[in-house]
Design goal:
It contains 6 helices and 16 strands. The protein is an alpha/beta fold. The protein is globular and about 70 Å long.
């Protein structure tokens, strides 16, 4: 039997719960466009993250790294997680899009990529002794592993290297990846120190290149409440856009 009176008595000694900042909601207005990689290879998106970007003033335009040969006209890219290793040959064969993404990155286009998106931006992905060329915007390749390299909740703290992130600001997120970077150069810059979790290497995550932030972390807008505002704010400050003449086939998310 349960001693309910004792349980209630103990419960009354608990302190009040801390205030929680509500997840952002859309205001219906947009002044920038963000291309979202969304197809069979890239499927891992929290709906709340998409809504947070819309709330921060972004129109989201879907594109497919598998099927589209050109980017839509956008001011930044969001490349989420998925299983790019399952589509090595298809992604490699779409060299026109890969080359354009690399060119736009080198020209300063802001890009946020996580997990599968990080893998896609690497030089190549190696799986089961097969290798597929990827975007080659980041200075390493990715090797698939049989065991998880990172699994569980993460706490990240901005180290001041990224223009996006307020130094010492924290993000609460998670990771689940069966891959690791190989041939990672010693001068690679990272945005976050990993306080909890694994990350990319040496308890660091968030590779920085030009205006790219690519990590193994899967963020959620309620655990990273300023993420959408930080990303869209960077896009506005940079003021870049993809130089594409035909946007007629772009699909709004």
């Amino acid at each position: 039997s349960l001693d309910l009176e004792s349980i209630f008595s103990i419960a009354k000694t608990a302190g009040s719960l801390p205030d929680v900042e509500p997840c952002p909601t859309s205001n219906g207005e947009s002044d920038i466009k963000i291309g979202v990689a969304m197809d069979r290879a890239f499927t891992f998106y929290y709906q709340e993250n998409l809504e947070a970007l819309e709330s921060a003033g972004a129109e989201l335009v879907r594109f497919s790294p598998l099927d589209d040969t050109r980017l839509p006209i956008v001011n930044g890219l969001y490349i989420g997680g998925g299983f790019p290793e399952m589509f090595l040959s298809e992604l490699e064969s779409n060299a026109r899009l890969r080359n354009q993404i690399k060119e736009e990155i080198e020209n300063g286009l802001p890009v946020y990529a996580e997990c599968g998106g990080l893998m896609y931006l690497a030089r190549s992905i190696v799986w089961n002794e097969k290798s597929g060329a990827m975007v080659n915007a980041l200075n390493f390749s990715v090797e698939m592993t049989k065991k998880p390299m990172g699994l569980g909740y993460m706490t990240l703290e901005a180290n001041g290297n990224s223009e996006w992130l307020k130094p010492k600001s924290k993000v609460y997120c998670h990771e689940f990846h069966h891959s690791r970077p190989v041939e990672l150069k010693g001068d690679t810059r990272f945005a976050w120190n990993v306080l909890r979790g694994t990350g990319i290497e040496n308890r660091m995550d968030g590779v920085i290149h030009k205006n790219v932030l690519a990590s193994y972390a899967h963020l959620h807008s309620c655990g990273a409440s300023t993420w959408a505002a930080d990303f869209t704010g960077l896009i506005r400050r940079i003021g870049k856009s993809v130089n594409v003449s035909d946007n007629s086939k772009a699909e709004q998310v």
